[in-house]
Amino acid sequence: MCPGHVHSILTGLMISQELIKTVTASLYERSLKKIPEDTKAVLRRAQGMETSDTGKKTLTIMLKSADAAEQKDHLVCTDVGIPVYSVKIGTQVRFEGALRQAIVEGFAQLAADIQPPILRMVTNPLTHERSHAGKDMPIVTFDVMDGADYLEIICAPKAMGSGRWEALETFVYPSLETIETYVLDVVMKAGSQPCPPIVVGVGIGGTFDYAARMAKQQILRPFGQINPEPILAAMEQRLLSAINAMGFGPMGTGGDTTAMAVHIDYAASHGFMPVAVALNCWINRRMGARIYNDGAVEWFE
Question: For the chain, how many structural domains are there in total?
Answer without folding.
Answer: 2
